[in-house]
Amino acid sequence: MTTRLTPTAYLDHIRSESARFRAVLADTDPTAPVPTAPEWTAADLLWHVAAEVQHFWTYVLETRPAAPTSETYSEPERPEDATYQDLLAHFDELNARFIKTLEQTGPEEPTWSWSPDQTAAFTYRRQAHEILIHRLDAELTAGAVTPLDPALAADGIDEILDVFYGGKPDWARFTGGGQYVRVDAVDTDTQTWVELGLVSGTRPNGDSLEDEPDLSVVSQDEIPGGTEPDVVIEGTAADLDAWLWRRRDDEGIKVTGDKDVYEHFRALTNQAITDD
Fold first, then answer.
1. Which positions ≥6 away from 102 have C-beta within 8 Å?
2. What distance in Å separates the CA atoms of residue 120 and residue 113, rounded to the nearest whole number?
3. Do the beta carbons of residue 129 and residue 153 sit within 8 Å?
4. Where are the domains of the chain?
5. CATH assignment of 151-269?
6. Which of 34, 247, 251, 256 could form a disulfide with 242 if both were Cys (CB 3.0 to 4.6 A apart)?
7. How far is it, in rounded angstroms, from Cα 142 to Cα 58?
8. What 3-state class would DSSP assign to 233?
């Protein structure tokens, strides 16, 4: 069962989650620390989403399919004298431009990304999850958390495990070790299977990677018949998505199975990642 949403649904979520993100931060002390990013304030979070995320992906879409480089793309500089209202207005401008650009870009169009998916569909999906998690950051900062959409969160489980923790460049070779973890979103009746293993390969700069612990999302038809997972992790889609993104603890999440396999899985998935 796929967790993927339609491009239209992803775009709708980008609109609604952006609006919620903005509304929450508009009523928040700009100096309030962000619990999930202690080095940031609410104002820093607002600037990050507007200027460092949505501005960048707008540029990617507008100049498709060329890859951005340090010579062709310049990140906006944050004015030292900008007020919080200035930052909110800046977000409004960049967010509107980003959404309009997405509306004018077909998901099938060739577009650069840092993933193997070189179409605009990647941006639709990635940015729906990006703003969902940063909306949660804003709400945690304000102390006003609201539910995450279950269908989007279920897809978020697959995305973080497959694209971030399980994603590999072309030069990398994954060898499965026959240990499986199944992540069950109980409210959406969706499951994500993960195999633990090792990755090796030679980077473009010549450096070698040899048998480093890694994981890979696998479909059920790739798993030998009769195989049972070594570990099952259960929770609601929203709880699991936020937990994997290190936005909440494991309260309410049920784990059964081999303790060592679980601890190996958590060591691989409990790391800071770049989520843009």
1. 11, 14, 61, 120, 123, 124, 127
2. 8
3. no
4. 7-146, 151-269
5. 3.30.1050
6. 247
7. 28
8. strand
The tens place of each residue's pLDDT in the chain, 276 residues long, gives 689 999 999 999 999 999 999 999 999 999 999 999 999 999 999 999 999 999 999 999 999 999 999 999 999 999 999 999 999 999 999 999 999 999 999 999 999 999 999 999 999 999 999 999 999 999 999 999 999 999 999 999 999 999 999 999 889 999 999 999 999 999 999 999 999 999 999 988 988 889 999 999 999 888 888 899 999 999 999 999 999 999 999 999 999 999 999 999 999 999 877 545
Phi/psi at 270 (5° precision): -105, 50
Predicted structure pTM score: 0.95
Q: What is the DSSP letter of 28?
A: S
Domain 7-146: top CATH class: mainly alpha
